[in-house]
Every structure is written in C-alpha cells, then in structure tokens.
Design goal:
Layout: H1 17-20, H2 23-40, E1 44-46, H3 52-59, E2 65-69, H4 71-75, H5 80-84, H6 97-109, E3 114-115, H7 124-127, H8 144-153, H9 159-174, E4 190-200, E5 219-229, E6 232-236, E7 239-240
Parallel strand pairs: 1-2, 2-3
Antiparallel strand pairs: 4-5, 5-6, 6-7
Helix pairs in contact: 2-3, 3-6
C-alpha cells in the first residue's frame, strides 16, 4: 500500500509524510498483526502506536496485545513540520493533534503498557536532505525523562504511572529479573529527579554524537539530576562520573 501511495509524497515538504504513511496504513498493519496473533494463539507487542483508531482497536485485544508509545508522539503533532521540518520526520509519522490526545487517553485507560524512546540519531547533515530523501528518526533517549516529568507536572499522568511505564511495566512485561522495583534483592537502578527544576532543553546538552534534538529551546519543569546503576553513581548533573559497566540482562524464565 505504501508503494502505491508514494505519489502522495511532496518533494521538499515533510508535512506530506503522514499523508503518505496514513492512518489506514497503520490500522491495517496493526489489525493484521492482531489477527495473526489470535489465529496462532500467541502474544504480541505492538510498538510505536500513533493513531486514535489503533488505540481503540488495541483496547479490544488487551488479552493478547501489549502496547508501546513514544514520547515524541505524546509531545509533538503535525504542526511541528512547519516549525522544524525534517527534524520531525519519523516512522510512524507524527500526526494530527487528535491522535496525540488519543494516545494520552490510552495511557490513562491502561491500554498503553510501556514507553519507548525510539532513539534514531541521524546526523543533521542527513536530516538536511530534502524530503523524501531525508531519513526518518530522531534522538530520544536523553529527552525521555525531562519530557515525561514535564507532562507529569502538567497533570497528564502521575509520577507513579510514569515509573510503571518506564521501569516496573517493562520489567513485568518482559520478565526481566532484578529490575523495575526498589526492593531487597533487586538491582539499585535509580534516577534522581528534581520535580520543580525548570530547564530549557538545548542541542548543546545532547550527549549523542549527532548533537541535536527536536526539542531544542523547549522549556520543561522536572529534570533528571543523577543516575545510579546497580548502586553505582554513573551520572550527576549532566556529567558521566563512572566508566560504563554494562552487564547481561537476566530473565526470570531463564533462571
């Protein structure tokens, strides 16, 4: 279907991206996935849900489907194409505001299970190519916490719900051992936040080598101050203070 609709892309106009990759395309894909899962008696995890129609569909299939949305689709809408051009281009696309509001209803109603950063750090040189030659994707890891804390302060969700979407929920959904709780026997993976701190997100703050974010200049209330991984302080006030010390993930099913 997308191949048949390629003529709907307008050269140099990234706002035509969600016209090409339209709502019907997304809904058809999700419905097909659900039908396959239902037929095979399988569970399915649906990533990057972006439409009001998909949220309604997935709400009817929560016995087999878990759902992920991204901070980008919870924060941006189609008006951002005029503001930042191809920097707002991603797959699935950023869509009209009604879809963003539907995603928030999905968060409130429990249809959405987890958040994903969808970190796709293309360079500014790559993103400067005229649409549709510009790649889809944007940075997302570093801005996830400040964006969602800002949404918490705006009353979009509770702090407890944010923790569940990013920590307890993923650990529960994927059966990750020793993660997602502050409890004896669990890894001391902690993020220290200042809920009242007011900051402005800047490109210069982005640690990714591409050095940009679609939220450059956005003021937020709520800020990550520090990060602990397995009890070791690894980040404080925007600076890495401990060398990386990654370890294999453990899953309850394999123990």
């Amino acid at each position: 279907r997308l191949n048949l609709r390629k003529s709907m892309r307008i050269a140099g106009d990234p706002s035509s991206h969600p016209v090409w990759r339209d709502v019907e395309t997304a809904v058809r894909s999700t419905r097909r996935l659900l039908n396959i899962a239902r037929e095979k008696g399988a569970l399915v995890h649906v990533l990057h849900v972006t439409t009001e129609e998909e949220i309604a569909l997935l709400a009817e299939h929560k016995d087999i489907a878990s759902v992920e949305v991204t901070p980008h689709h919870l924060t941006m809408d189609a008006s951002d194409y005029a503001r930042i051009g191809t920097l707002a281009q991603m797959n699935p696309p950023v869509r009209e505001a009604r879809h963003r509001e539907a995603l928030w209803r999905g968060v409130a109603q429990g249809v959405v299970d987890v958040l994903g950063s969808d970190h796709a750090p293309h360079t500014l040189e790559e993103k400067a190519k005229p649409y549709p030659n510009s790649p889809s994707g944007m940075t997302g890891v570093q801005t996830l916490v400040p964006l969602l804390l800002d949404h918490v302060n705006a009353g979009r969700l509770t702090l407890q719900r944010f923790v569940d979407l990013t920590s307890a929920g993923p650990a529960r959904l994927f059966g990750i051992a020793g993660k997602g709780r502050v409890a004896v026997g669990y890894d001391a993976d902690l993020t220290i936040v200042d809920m009242k701190r007011r900051e402005t997100i800047r490109n210069s703050w982005i640690a990714s080598r591409v050095g940009w974010t679609p939220y450059d200049g956005k003021e937020v209330v709520g800020w990550p101050v520090g990060t602990f991984v397995r009890g070791a302080k690894v980040m404080w006030e925007g600076e890495l203070v401990t060398p990386s010390s990654g370890a294999p993930m453990r899953f309850w099913a394999a123990l």
